[in-house]
């Protein structure tokens, strides 16, 4: 749940949102954890949420090979965490991929047809990470 967008915000509120221990309540440490740059201000945390964002993308059902996936239809909605630091619009290698927007159910390992500028299929490992991909022949 995100922190409030206005009013008083305490270090304990920030610590709780970040999921840190009671002993780790330095504003500098918490700002670093959240990815903020100096100077460290409590107001940086207005509206902040530690929950990872999910981004949707279209893909096929799961297949056992890239060649079969390439024949599939892109008619499913999936979600990725943009763990690669790439686009929020398209899934990329090293993103974790999920079947739900809450990102609680990782996709099953296998091949999925996708439609991105760089990839036409991705291969998901047993941990739900897109680790391989390519262009359909």
Protein model, in words:
The chain has helices spanning 11-18, 27-34, 66-69; strands spanning 55-59, 76-80, 97-98, 110-113, 121-124, 130-134. The chain has 137 residues and is of the alpha+beta class. It folds into two domains: 1-51, no CATH class; 55-134, no CATH class. The strands form two sheets. A three-stranded antiparallel β-sheet has the order 1-2-3, with no helix packed on it. It has a three-stranded antiparallel β-sheet with strand order 4-5-6, with no helix packed on it. Helix 1 packs parallel to helix 2. The radius of gyration is 19 Å and the shape is elongated.
Present the secondary structure layout:
Layout: H1 11-18, H2 27-34, E1 55-59, H3 66-69, E2 76-80, E3 97-98, E4 110-113, E5 121-124, E6 130-134
Antiparallel strand pairs: 1-2, 2-3, 4-5, 5-6
The total number of structural domains is 2
Q: How many β strands by DSSP?
A: 6
**Order of helix and strand elements from N to C terminus:** HHEHEEEEE
- The overall average pLDDT, rounded, is 90
Strand order of the largest sheet: 1-2-3
State the low-pLDDT regions, or none.
none
Q: Please report the number of helical segments.
A: 3
Q: Report the C-alpha radius of gyration, rounded.
A: 19 Å
- Characterize the biggest β-sheet: 3 strands, antiparallel
> How far apart are the first and last residues' alpha carbons, in Å?
45 Å
Tell me roughly what share of residues is in helical segments. 10-25%
Structural class: alpha+beta
β-sheet strand percentage:
15-25%
User: What does the overall shape look like?
Assistant: elongated
